[in-house]
């Protein structure tokens, strides 16, 4: 595929890639739990245990009985046990995601110790936010402040009607008005692109899988004392499922999160530049932000990084690498795209 050239090309390309990345969350979870269950069947090696799982599998896929052999039986059995494992996991995750949807924005604001402000407190900031909201065709969001001299910002909320834009005092004081307007446009782009809801669910919702792994790990401490054969077999299976959840929560999910974050930052840069028709202002703002983006209050909130315009946990002396473990695209790459887009807009 050719490299996107215009801002519209960047937005469309990043939206397509984000959709594919989001699909990886359920697919990777199901795959990991499935592999854990299949491995459990092989490790346990009890014909009766295998047969129970096969029975469950064939109850859902009866036509596949013709493929049942001694070789496929453990695989069929593992898939059968996967069903029993995923049903409660998905129910608990669905409930937790619902709670995250309802209260996630308040949780994020509390994590950042962000305080809402009124128009009389920062009239110039309010006027900029109002102007950008009008230009973007979006409702006026709430405006919150983090008392920190660094330069950073993020947006949160369930939808544009309940959105909040959060700015550090440093970014307000140290950027030129056109640069601050560009940052606000970037955050307004996240609101318009519905990234705020996605980030909110990722930050406050996906942690449920870590909690489930902890809960299952604790349950193993009590079940390990049982001398019942069937209970012992289930203990092995639960242990392997716990390992699968830990791998998902601490390795797979963060990698997907970082990839999504990078794509959404590119899209927000492009959309924000379109809103104010000034990509160079955002490029200039990003240059300054990259020198002092660390927000101390977020040092112990690593998941919050994906919501910010720049990684708030990065030391100014340490460059953000555009690799699998980076929450944000390389700043120089973002600036290069914006400057390239400015050339397109000037024609």
Describe this structure in words.
With 347 residues, the protein is mainly alpha-helical. It has one domain. It contains eleven helices and four strands; from the N terminus they run αααβαβββααααααα. It has helices at 7-44, 47-60, 73-111, 123-136, 169-174, 177-192, 195-205, 208-223, 229-276, 279-289, 331-345, and strands at 115-116, 142-146, 153-156, 164-168. A four-stranded mixed β-sheet has the order 1-2-4-3, with helices on both faces. β3 and β4 form a beta hairpin. α2 (47-60) crosses α3 and α8 runs antiparallel to α9. The longest helix has 48 residues, at 229-276. The two termini are 25 Å apart. The model is unreliable at 316-322 (pLDDT under 50).
Strand order of the largest sheet: 1-2-4-3
Strand content: under 5%
- Give the overall silhouette: elongated
Taken together, the total number of domains comes to 1
Q: What does the average pLDDT come to?
A: 88
Largest sheet: 4 strands, mixed
How many E-type strands?
4
* Poorly predicted segments: 316-322
């Amino acid at each position: 595929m050719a490299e996107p050239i215009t801002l519209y090309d960047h937005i469309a390309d990043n939206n397509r890639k984000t959709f594919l990345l989001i699909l990886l969350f359920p697919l990777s979870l199901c795959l990991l739990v499935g592999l854990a269950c299949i491995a459990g069947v092989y490790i346990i090696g009890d014909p009766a245990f295998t047969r129970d799982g096969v029975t469950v599998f064939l109850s859902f896929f009866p036509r596949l009985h013709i493929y049942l052999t001694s070789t496929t039986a453990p695989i069929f059995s593992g898939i059968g046990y996967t069903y029993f494992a995923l049903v409660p996991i998905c129910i608990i995750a669905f409930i937790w995601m619902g709670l995250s949807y309802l209260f996630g924005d308040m949780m994020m604001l509390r994590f950042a110790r962000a305080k809402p402000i009124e128009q009389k407190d920062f009239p110039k900031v309010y006027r900029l936010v109002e102007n950008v909201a009008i230009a973007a065709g979006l409702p006026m969001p709430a405006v919150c402040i983090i008392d920190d001299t660094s330069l950073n910002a993020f947006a949160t909320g369930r939808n544009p009607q309940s959105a909040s834009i959060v700015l550090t005092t440093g970014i307000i004081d140290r950027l030129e008005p056109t640069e601050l307007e560009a940052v606000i446009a970037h955050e307004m782009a996240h609101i318009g692109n519905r990234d705020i809801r996605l980030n909110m669910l990722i930050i406050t919702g996906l942690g449920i899988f870590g909690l489930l792994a902890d809960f299952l790990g604790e349950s193993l401490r009590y079940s390990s004392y049982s001398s019942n054969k069937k209970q012992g077999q289930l203990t092995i299976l639960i242990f392997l499922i716990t390992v699968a959840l830990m791998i998902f929560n601490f390795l797979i999910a963060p990698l997907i999160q970082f990839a999504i974050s990078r794509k959404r930052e590119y899209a927000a840069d492009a959309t924000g530049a379109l809103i104010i028709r000034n990509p160079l202002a955002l490029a200039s703002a990003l240059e300054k932000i990259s020198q002092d983006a660390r927000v101390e209050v977020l040092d112990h909130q690593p998941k919050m990084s994906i919501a910010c315009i720049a990684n708030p946990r990065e030391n100014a002396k340490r460059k953000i690498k555009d690799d699998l473990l980076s929450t944000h695209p390389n700043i120089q790459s973002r600036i290069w795209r914006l400057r390239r887009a400015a050339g397109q807009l000037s024609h």
